[in-house]
Amino acid sequence: MAPTKTGLAGWYARIAAFNVEDLFSRKREPGPPRTVFVNQNLPPDYLDHKGRVRSEHVYTSNQVITSKYTIITFIPRNLLEQFRRIANIYFLGIAVLQFFPKFSTIAPGVVILPLIIIIVITGLKDGYEDVKRHQSDRRVNHSKVKVLSEDYWSNPNAMQGKSRTFVRGLVPKGSKLPSLQNLFKRALNAGEELSRTPETEIDYDEVNERDRFPDGKTMPHWKNVIWEDVRVGDFVKLYNDEPLPADILICATSEDENIAFVETKNLDGETNLKSRNAVPALTHLRTAAACADSRTSFQVKCDRPDTNMYRLNGNVAIDEDVSPVDLSMTLLRGTVLRNTEWVIGVVMYTGLDTKIVLNSGVTPSKRSKVERQMNPQVFINLLLLAAMATVCAIVDSSLERQYFPLGAPWLYGDDLSDDNPRINGLVTWAFSLLTFQDIVPISLYISIEFVRTCQAAFIYFDADIWYEKTNQATIARSWNLSDDLGQIEYIFSDKTGTLTQNLMVFRQCSIGGRAYRGDPEIAGDDRDLDEVKASSIIDGQPVNVDLWRTSAQSSNGTATTEHQGTTNKQSKDGFHFRDSLLQEDLEEAHNPDAEPESAAHSRLLNGFFTVLSLCHTVLTSVDPVTGEIQYKSQSPDEAALVQAAADVGFVFQGKDKDILTLKTPAEVEKYELLNILEFTSARKRMSVVLRKLGGDDNRLFLLTKGADNVIFERLKSGGEDLKRETEQHLNEFANGGLRTLTLAFKVINEDEYETWNHRYHDAIVAMDDREAKIEAVCNELETNLRLLGATAIEDRLQDGVPEAIADLKRAGIKIWVATGDKLETAIAIGRSTNLVEPDSNVIIVRGNNQGHPVLRQIRHAMEKYFPDSEVVAPGARLPRSSTSSRDGDRNIPLQRIDTSVSSIAGSGNGERPGGFVLVIDGDALLDVFSDENNKSLMLQLATLCEGVICCRVSPLQKALIVKLVKEGLGAMTLAIGDGANDVSMIQAADVGVGISGEEGLQAVNSSDYAIAQFRFLKKLLLVHGHWSYARNGTMLSNFFYKNIVPTGILWWFQIYSAWSGYYVFDYTYILFWNSLWTIAPLSGLAFLTGSRVLMELPELYHYGRKGYWFGIKQFLIFMFDGVVQSAVIFFITLYTYTSTTSRTDGYDVYIYEFSTTMAVSAVMVANMFTGFTATAWTAWLFFAVFVGIVMVWLFTAIYAAIVPANTVTALYGNNHYLFTSAYFWLCLPITFLVALAPRYLAKAWKFGFSPDDIDTVRWIRKNDPHRNLATKYPPSGLAAMRRPSSAASRRSSHDSVASIGRMPTRPSMDIRSASRTDMSTGIVSVDRGFDFMTEENGVAMRRIQTNLSERRFGSRELVDSSQSPKGKSSRSRMFSLRRSLLKRKAS
């Protein structure tokens, strides 16, 4: 999006944009649509004239490599990466020049040795980092999976050979990684994407088959194969909890009707399971023998490999029969098989052709921003060097032409072919390059690598970002990016596993207008969930939710054998809801001596938990060993709701066909499941129709749960007080970041249900417009509901996430969330993490075919909410710090969108004071990225908003979002995630951070920094990033400065040496300038802004975001200082010594007398100047500054005393004249003080009259070291960083975080509540935190609906309506306690 540069700038930009990885990328363009042949030979047109398979039909291997180097490419690629540094090319040229005897100053080998050392050390570091990637790749590629043995069948599909990687070339073939077995065990416990180690190498489908064929080779069987050897067309058998090695077509599964369940959070970030089904035509392939049978031949025709994660088209052809194939019949690499004993499938795509790999990028070769900025500065110095050498050459040649005719003795014979003014001018030019070569010192890069290595060690050994639970440190995997951590402007974060723990916890509820918030010691408990034990008891046995159970088998008639659910490593223990007030109310409800006035609330309590217990699709199993009931659900929300009901005594005991069993505190009740009205994102509700069995009435009930606005508009009239109280509680729950659901019910008349059920059946079997008909029929029944209450579930965050995000926002960092979750889930997490504050206005941009076009939505939002903003033309770069919607100095009129849809928010909606948050989905992003104009508009709208949440995005879209900001704004970006779906985003950002969480180590393997918790990002950026950037930037500026000082002295001397390129002082002073005299102070730079201050005042991070410590401005200032100081040292010393001789014998001074004085003075000035740039004089800095000064004094004395007979020296005896000269002792203090006076005075004036924030903090810390800066800001220095109060900003994000959990009570129609505008429809509403996560239109739900329909209309008649009493009397007894229980007080 940046404008195209021309001329010299364009030439430089093209060189700077050169990507080495483009030359070595292993990725290829996806091939054509493919046909996989199973038990068939390849057709003749697949072969060339030599009988070989054509290249377009040769598929890529299943080997996936995330590393950069191989044995062959390591040296050339690493050298290309290192020689992207202009300075390295310069150093090489200087070294080559000195191999010519005419220009040699010292031995050529010694000259090139420093460059070789730098290249070797950097190469070893890069190689070490890449070996770690190779080891990770090896663990994945060498994971094992069961594949059909080829003893009785052959796979005709051709595959490419595997790459020979770096580790493969070093490790012997027979060797194994010693920790591989332990790694597989850890993979099962932590959810890593690694296959478990099968217990046996050969697997038979039936045990007795092995007895009949003892040799083990005469019967088709399954054998272990490593992942990288899996081929297209192979039959594979996958077991429960195993990850998928490739994209596989399902043939058969262990479950009824060949259903399988898969966890896709590595692909789309969603924690609920997805159901998949087998291809109907292949369900007979249930054994190895059936798969190997030559009569079982078919073809699988597939699309070409595609990055779209949600689309796959193909078909299976068996003879003349063709069966369609879509995504619901496939299992993708990166997913994990759950709650399914086994699956048999055929491999369709492998390796680089799988969808998850297509969505990931090539491992980039990243360079830090400082290094990129340093290249033009080095280039400026090289131009300056070339100019200085050229001036010397021209003037020297001119002087030779002028003085040769005059018979100058030093030009005798200056008319030869190899010795004349023209040739000597070129020779002088080359000599001048060597004279001034230290203007770009080679020690610069040695020092950078050393400092960055130390910074990586500081990060590793920081106990504050060391996760004790897993004993894991924060690791810098790319050492060269440490200073980038201090300049981040945008953070892009994944949600699942990064911000959240993948765990739903029932926190609060509202029943009958009364809020139950949980006991404080439990609700606020931050202990690990595995420390909280179960409390529900069934017949003496505890009830537990086993969300990640590997298998479940029924042991009695009430437990189902269907496997369907999510999973969680909290297998036996989990959070359990407890509320003492609720317990008292429940006991009162079941007390036969209870007062009559409490009966109404008792019925609501009973009804509320009955809805929780029965309105769901959760299934149960009983552990055959412990007898514990295990709940399994596709939706983690449903599992939390059912568990909460069980915690208070309403225990769902299971489903036997259509009969649901519920154990209440009073009795065991049974219900017949008649219908499930499925949840969808459009309906935003779920209902079940039940018939209560037993007793004498067999009443019909409709139980409903869903979004508050959907439920409230379907309630019967009356009960306004209950509605108002419930709305108020919903607001409180939503403002606390909790996910809300509203519960309701109604009693159904038997006749009404019978006629409705026939219409419903007709709708679900309709061929045309089925969805609309189903929705219309469901709406007929879901009316006149009676409100029960609402639930509040926490999508449990990682520890410290809201506080970390609040402080990062205070630091001026914009945070975007990119997740594959649906819109409601993304907004709910935005609220709980403080990205969406309680008074924020949410702007929703959707991409769909029913609403307004995406471009129109974006333009409409710009015109209505930001009318003062000018639309930026495509291709123009936006300002890097666009004014957000909360900036206090902009009075942005907040206007309400005028739509035909009546708002449920009341007047004032769209005028909330909390700024704007943009929420955009993946479909809209498809339109955005298709056009440059759309990208410009979307980016402009996003920068005007307080935050951005991108939902339903694919891994590739995550990377495109990062690149949009990175290239469109030129901003520094950081991406953080923990799953394989975050790899492309991590690689696209300037800095990638991987979290080693439950989604595996894929993100860590591709990251630059590995952390264990999101909250560690705060200190990593605010402290280590600040330190690294400040130190590196100051060090580099000082490096350029301290080398311009001796270079300047040498340059001024050319005026008096006929521009000959001659050294003014002995070469040893130049040789040791960067290695001994001035190197120590640069590594001793220290900063008083300690970690405590930086953590208390995140606003100090703005120095890094604005590039305060390094840039062209700082470079020019330091260079100017060096030039001025060199002039002061040279001319004061020169004229002091030449005004009259300093010798007592009357002879003129020798050149090395005054030049040595210059050298000593230059070392003293350069070292002290470096000390001036530090903000604190520590003991180490004091030592580092003076050690070089002491060394140069000792060297001067000792070197001048060395007898020429021992070594060649031009300074022998110099100490006799130097240390006895008054000029020497006079020049040193004068040049020292005069040279440093300008910087000293400027620094003193700045600190006294124009202090910046760091100066202010230093002063406060000195005078009041115990002051808490987090709660009491300094009065002046930080005032500019405070967010000014305005109509668009009521309180800071820090205050918002502090208020979570103690939100004030507010009316339901409070205009301060957050508004939510859907730009695709124009609907404006109040957001009360609704969210519910489940699979929509899944295979499992379709199966349940089909079974219910068949049973209703194929095997039984409806119950006669006369058997069911009707009217108000039956409704009044809905969910009431049995009369026998209430009448016990007589006994």
Helical residues, percent:
25-40%
Strand order, largest beta sheet: 15-36-35-34-16-30-33-32-31-37-38
pLDDT < 50 stretches: 167-199, 207-214, 522-573, 881-910, 1279-1313, 1355-1387
Query: Which structural class do the helices and strands define?
Result: alpha+beta
The beta-strand count equals: 38
Shape: elongated
Strand content: 5-15%
Sheet bearing the most strands, described?
Answer: 11 strands, mixed
Describe this structure in words.
The protein has 1387 residues and is an alpha+beta fold. Helices cover 40% and strands 15% of the residues. The chain contains 46 helices and 38 strands. The strands form six sheets. An eleven-stranded mixed sheet has the order 15-36-35-34-16-30-33-32-31-37-38, sandwiched between helices. It has a nine-stranded antiparallel sheet with strand order 18-17-29-28-27-26-25-24-23, sandwiched between helices. The C terminus is likely disordered.
Task: Summarize this entry quickly.
Helices cover 40% and strands 15% of the residues. With 1387 residues, it is α+β, with helices and mostly antiparallel strands.
Question: Key features?
Answer:
9-stranded antiparallel β-sheet, single chain, 1387 residues, alpha+beta, disordered C terminus, elongated, 11-stranded mixed β-sheet
Strand-helix topology:
Layout: H1 7-16, H2 21-24, E1 34-38, H3 74-82, H4 86-97, H5 108-141, E2 144-148, H6 166-170, H7 180-190, E3 202-203, H8 207-212, E4 222-226, E5 235-239, E6 247-253, E7 259-263, H9 265-268, E8 274-277, H10 288-292, E9 298-302, E10 314-318, E11 321-325, E12 330-331, E13 336-338, E14 342-349, H11 355-358, H12 369-403, H13 421-435, H14 443-460, E15 475-476, E16 490-493, E17 500-511, E18 514-516, H15 520-523, E19 537-538, E20 541-545, H16 580-589, H17 599-614, E21 619-622, E22 629-632, H18 636-647, E23 651-656, E24 659-663, E25 668-677, E26 685-693, E27 700-706, H19 708-712, H20 720-735, E28 739-748, H21 750-764, H22 770-781, E29 786-797, H23 801-810, E30 814-818, H24 823-832, E31 841-845, H25 854-865, E32 916-921, H26 922-928, H27 932-944, E33 947-951, H28 955-968, E34 973-977, H29 983-988, E35 991-995, H30 1002-1005, E36 1009-1011, H31 1016-1054, H32 1067-1071, H33 1073-1077, H34 1080-1083, H35 1091-1096, H36 1102-1105, H37 1112-1139, H38 1151-1173, H39 1179-1199, H40 1214-1218, H41 1222-1249, H42 1253-1263, H43 1293-1299, E37 1315-1318, ...
Helix pairs in contact: 3-5, 4-5, 12-13, 12-31, 14-31, 16-17, 17-18, 21-22, 23-31, 23-43, 25-27, 31-37, 31-38, 37-38, 37-41, 38-39, 38-41
